[in-house]
Amino acid sequence: MANLTIVNVDDEYPALQLVKQYCDQLEEVELLASFQKPEEALAFLKANSVDLVVFDINMPGINGVELLEQLPDPPLCIFLTLETKFAVKAFELDVVHYLIKPVDFDTFKKAVNKARDFVQFKSSAGNKQQEDFIMFKSNYVMNKVFLKDILWIQGFGEYIVLMTTLKKYMILERMSNFEEKFQHLGFIRIHKSYIVLSDHINSYNSGHVFLKNGEELPLGRTYKKNLKIHFS
């Protein structure tokens, strides 16, 4: 059985055929249905459960954004469109990816793989299993980062910066929200502006935390109890 089910909605038949061609080349992916009429897609999605919908935006009757907003329990979504003006709205709707036509196979495959990762992440979280990665959105794209690669998280008001061994990500998220969401994975608050993974801590003193990779971060006075619990 395919582990990722997809529905495609686009009023242009050649675009539907291209997505079908791409899906046929992907393993463990099943394209359940394709619709040129968004009203028909809406009825199907209200009656059937799917993992991912690939939407065009500019369609007659109901556009892709309106269609997604009308779903009571929307699946994951990739917008595949000529439009660029809806990128911010797509971010608000938590779409997995925002692809601009024309899209080659490799780009489409990466976007679908991000959706697959997120489905697996939700499944493992629901089963309360220990994940070795986290999923988050940055620059309108859903990202997967392994815990072993995360150095620290730093807060900047409404945003946080997630620093990894490979790159840094700017995320629209408050520190408190991130801490609550991923605390079960071993993230620990060491400062009003810093969160680290407890497994990455080597030692600490009265004012600093020393990570296993040699990095040194500030230790807030009110957060020392978190470290004492960890090292007890």
Automatic annotation (TrEMBL):
Keywords linked to the UniProt accession: DNA-binding, Phosphoprotein
Domain HTH LytTR-type: 147-232
UniProt-recorded name of the protein: DNA-binding response regulator
Domain Response regulatory: from-to ranges: 5-116
Gene3D superfamilies in the record: 3.40.50.2300, LytTr DNA-binding domain (2.40.50.1020)
Gene source species: Chryseobacterium pennipullorum
Coiled coil: none
Classification via SMART domains: LytTR, REC
GO molecular function: DNA binding; phosphorelay response regulator activity
List of residues that carry 4-aspartylphosphate: 56
SUPFAM superfamilies, A to Z: CheY-like
